[in-house]
Amino acid sequence: MQRRSFLQTGAAAALAMHAPLWAQDKSPISIIMPVGGGTGVDTSTRILADVVSRELQRSVILENKPGADTMIATQHVLNGPTDGSRVLLISPSNMVLVPLVNKKLAFKPETQLQPVILSVRGGAALIVKAGRHRTLAEFVADAKANPGKLSVATYGGHYYKLLALLIQHELGIELNSVQYKDPAPAMADVVGGNVDAMVIDAGAAREFFRAGKTQILALTHESRPQAFLDVPTFRELGYPGLTAYVWIGYAVKAGTPPEVVQRLYRAFSVALKSPEYVSYMEKSSAGSELIDFDADKTRAYVQEERKRFAALIDKTGYTV
Q1: Which residues contact 128 (CB under 8 A, 6 or more apart)?
Q2: How far is it, in rounded angstroms, from Cα 120 to Cα 277?
């Protein structure tokens, strides 16, 4: 009992020392981005960074380090100090999918990264060319009548490829997968009738849907988002297993003092609710929602995502 009491007292004293030191530190905080500049997530994070800077009374800068399936940015944070000065943008890629898919990767996010906050999540859409299929039921019937003949486009890293596999598994259909590096050429081929369907971020699907060039068959949201009140979700059509989100958040290197993590969380939480950030989200992020999970909730959420995708990878035999 005496030893335990001594350790608890020591831990409390360590936190007490870290808190004022960190509060007085005016050196810059870097948010390390696994994506390039000019992307939507880059723009939104810059808005957050301005508010976080005001809250912490410290400079906050963004460093874009894309490449190697998000691992260049991730490794940069892991190579840094445990003082909260390097904050990593996290997503399904670096927290779940890359470590699961790349078995040679010596990176374990559950032990090497400390979540700070899960900030935003957004659903995806299954789309077809306007007039090709009017409903999800029509699409499923066509796919079952012609197994392996209908094509589905995906793009980017692992997430949308795996989501397309999940859709096929849950709907009981087999599609011919067509991979693209970026969404724009994939969307062009859907509109042009060169591919039959596409799995895409819901916000990115809105313009072509509203212009009458595509039809959204279903959304992966739990319930219809405000921007798509006229579009059904997979859940309401009888496929609750197809509720899925792309999410982003922020983390620091494991071993960062809890008080520092909490201070970062509070600053990001305030930034999420700031007028400038809310306004940006309302204008540019259709189908996305603010989450504001703290460190513990974020860790639990990511663990559930890891279990889910690990099971999917095992079932489908998905590889790089």
Answers
A1: 139, 190, 196, 197, 198, 214, 215, 217
A2: 11
pLDDT tens profile 279-307: 998 888 777 899 999 999 999 999 999 99
Q: How many CA atoms lie within 13 A of 305 on its CB side?
A: 28
Strand, helix or coil for residue 176:
strand
Which one, of 287, 186, 181, 185, lies nearest residue 230 by Cα?
A: 287
Q: Judge residue 192's burial from the number of C-beta atoms within 10 Å of its C-beta, 0-12 exposed, 13-18 middle, 19 or more buried.
A: exposed
Which residues lie across from 125 on neighbouring strands? 200, 219
Residue 13 has pLDDT above 70, yes or no: no
State the greatest distance between any 2 C-alpha atoms of the chain, in Å, as a whole number.
75
C-beta atoms surrounding 238 within 10 Å: 10
All residues at 6 or more sequence positions from 43 whose CB lies less than 8 Å from its CB, including other chains? 280, 284
